[in-house]
Amino acid sequence: MDQTLTQFGSVFVFLLLGVIFVVGGYLTSRLLRPSRPNPQKNSTYECGEEAIGSAWVKFNIRFYVVALIFIIFDVEVVFLYPWATVFKPLGTFALIEVLVFAGILILGLAYAWVKGDLDWVRPTPNIPKMPPMPELPVAKGASQKD
Question: What is this structure's pTM?
Answer without folding.
Answer: 0.43
